[in-house]
Amino acid sequence: MPNEDVKIGTVDGDLARWFGNPERLTVQRARSELRAGRPVKVTGAGGASLTVAAAEMLGGERIAAWHRATGGAPGLILPAPRLGHLGIDTATPSHLSLDGLTGEEIETILIAVQPRIPTIEHRPADTLEVAALDLVKRAYLLPAAVVLPAEASYQTSLLEVDAAAITNFHEQSARDLTIAARAGVPLAEAPDAEFVIFRGGDGLHDQIAIVIGKPNSHQPVLTRLHSACLTGDLFASLKCDCGDQLRRAVDEIAAAGSGALLYLDQEGRGIGLLNKMRAYGLQALGHDTLDADAVLGYEPDERRYAVAGAMLSLLGYRRITLMTNNPEKISALENFGVNVVGHQRIVGDVNPHNHYYLTTKAERAGHMLESIVRKVVRK
Fold it and tell me: Which of 249, 272, 264 has the alpha carbon at shortest distance from 209?
């Protein structure tokens, strides 16, 4: 018999207690809707709302057809990096008018590498439109949102998600993080390893920490934050140094006696595997790793670290020595209450396939790799 004293779903507090934070759950559902090709409704202050669809799930012809069917109401929201590639100089996302554009022209605006486009009327995106674009990005879809004012839409049964919940999604995910399972998994170079699985992050998979040995939480814990890289970690791709860094981090932590490696679901510096492959295709055309991401519409690094800070907190590690070549990771963790008392570099092999990539990270992204990229690489 159910407990009659328990009233489920009577207030938001009950929903949060039984099913997790309702706003975060709504954002998760909205991401799934967009990835399935369905629109959602983004709501804001004062009753304002937008019907939002992921542009890549519609395509140029369907966007043009939607534009015609609704009397020209939809607009296209693009981020600053993609706009710059289109010749529109701005530091913020913008709303582009679709008036007079064909499906082929819209497709060019979305994905063309060397676009030739007509003059397009545009304006800075408002707060609700920026949230709509962020939601599409959090769904790991191409950062381009088609928006339609709600009053112009015939849809009445769309999933609704609050703009503030989208903005706060990563931090709320960190607050809701819990340890779901842990078990010993002996590794070749670290037999005394334990896998700790966290539930509640904002990626599409659970987050993982590999704890090696018995770290003393009263001392700085040797720690590596490693963003997932399927190609490098699993298949030993030569295009990056990720797989080398992963295996060497495990080796060095084991040699030190104890520590932790956080394996974060942030493929491709936070853009997802599909968009990472798109960026690889652009690199083959001559773009470096940062410019390739910008052509797609992404900033140089889309990763966020509140969840990593929460993982360390749940493990009881508040003081760490961070294994990284990226100074931004140090400041990001400190912003979330982690005391980074020191750092040490973690260097992979340099080869003819990744030398340009590593050089770009050193010269344009500020990674501490100067001595490495100066090496003469011979085939």
Answer: 264
Q: Exposed, middle or buried, 35 (CB in 10 Å: 0-12/13-18/19+)?
A: middle
Q: How far apart are CA 8 and CA 62, in angstroms?
A: 42
Domain count, the chain: 2
Find, among 102, 124, 106, 123, the residue nearest to 115 by Cα: 106
Q: Is 304 a catalytic residue?
A: no
Give the strand pairing for 207-212 and 40-43. unpaired
Residue 301 annotated in active site: yes
Instruction: Evaluate whether residue 243 is within a structural domain.
Output: yes
Pick the catalytic residue from 82, 248, 278, 303: 303
Q: Please state the separation of Cα 121 from the chain's center in Å.
A: 30
Choosing from 248, 269, 301, 304, which is the catalytic residue?
301
Range(s) of the domain holding residue 182: 176-266+303-373
Q: Per-residue pLDDT tens for 14-26? A: 555 566 688 899 9
Considering the domain architecture, whether residues 349 and 231 belong to the same structural domain is answered as yes
Q: For residue range 135-164, what is the model confidence (pLDDT) as tens digits?
A: 999 999 999 999 998 765 555 689 999 999
